[in-house]
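Worked example 2:
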Amino acid sequence: MKWEVHNVFPKPESIKIICDLFNIPLEYFHDYYKVYYYSPNEIIRQWKIKNNFNYGEVTKLLNISHSGFARLLSGKISLSYEMYLKFKELEVF
């Protein structure tokens, strides 16, 4: 597929439509899509609590702003592929 060669990932919404249409699991394309649709903010919140991290510690680990992390947890912004990779490195997903 073209995105594999160029390391570009289609929008999650497009993959969801394909998966629903052909009745295939989201992770068929990549685990990112499965995580994207199954409450990543809750998984991240539980990881933060389990590790007893405060916002400052998490933002330093991820190299993001406090407000960016807060918006991710609240669901105001969606999990990007780049952020997914950071969390994957930290074994959140």
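The chain has a mean pLDDT of 91. The chain has two domains: 1-38, 39-93.
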